[in-house]
Amino acid sequence: NAGVTQTPKFQVLKTGQSMTLQCAQDMNHNSMYWYRQDPGMGLRLIYYSASEGTTDKGEVPNGYNVSRLNKREFSLRLESAAPSQTSVYFCASMRQTGTSNSYEQYFGPGTRLTVT
Amino acid sequence: GENVEQHPSTLSVQEGDSAVIKCTYSDSASNYFPWYKQELGKRPQLIIDIRSNVGEKKDQRIAVTLNKTAKHFSLHITETQPEDSAVYFCAPSGGGADGLTFGKGTHLIIQP
Asked: Which of A27, A99, B28, B99 has its CA 20 to 30 A from that of B51?
């Protein structure tokens, strides 16, 4: 089991360029998430997908789009990158069952993105 | 939305001493209270969580206590060791699939 994987690990973009961050999980989890982490800010939710076929905005969705390609894969797209989007991006997944006592989220290793 | 605050933002303790980190939240509908640990350069990982029908939970040297009336919960680490040095985040939630609202984190430093 690889768990949650993300590509790429590092990326440098120029302002205005676009790119897609890829995320995949092999744990058969229903829900998937994208967070960004900035120094002193904790992790903030960008978008999430509660189940295959659905996506919803989180706290900081502006400038991003997402696609839940299938149950395994959830991608994050920056259409026109801005310096304010320099951050570390984490993908996460959660099994989510109605009877579960835990809603543990499993995180990927992160993508460090710099926009110049 | 949920307003989450953690205190302190930095905590330095001597190895072997105890550490306590407090998390306050605003949404009275929150019923799931996890703590995540993030080592430098690594991903966050769940270390302990509690549901609102339980007041305390222990797992070896770590424990979480919940005061739902006052809307705060705390992480307790006893007999601290160098490997406890990390940033700790609380993330209270309603327990569904909506994603977590994280506190800004507490940097725990274990002094030898």
From this structure: A27
Under DSSP, the state recorded for A51 is S
Phi, psi at residue B83, to the nearest 5°?
-70, -5
- Residue B98 sits at the chain A interface (C-beta within 8 Å): yes
| Residue B53 pLDDT | 81
Partner residue opposite A96 with nearest CB, options B45, B97, B101: B97
Q: What Cα–Cα distance (Å) separates residue B30 from each residue in B1, B45, B100?
A: 11, 20, 11
CA angle A54, B35, A96 (to 5 degrees): 30
Where residue A96 falls among pLDDT bands split at 50, 70, 90?
low
Query: What CA–CA distance (Å, rounded) separates B48 from B64?
Result: 7
Asked if the model's pLDDT at residue B94 lies above 90, the reply is no
More confident residue, A1 or A63: A63
Break chain A down into helix, strand, coil percent, rounded to 5: 5, 50, 45
Residues in contact with A98: Cβ distance below 8 Å, sequence separation at least 6, in sequence order: none
pLDDT at B7 over 90: yes
CB contact under 8 A, A43 and B100: yes
Give the separation between CA A38 and CA A51, rounded to whole angstroms: 27
Structure tokens at B67: 């005061």
Helices (H), A12-84: none
Q: Omega into B8 within 30° of 0, i.e. cis?
A: yes
Per-residue pLDDT, averaged over B16-37, amounts to: 96
Contact B93, B101 (CB under 8 A): yes
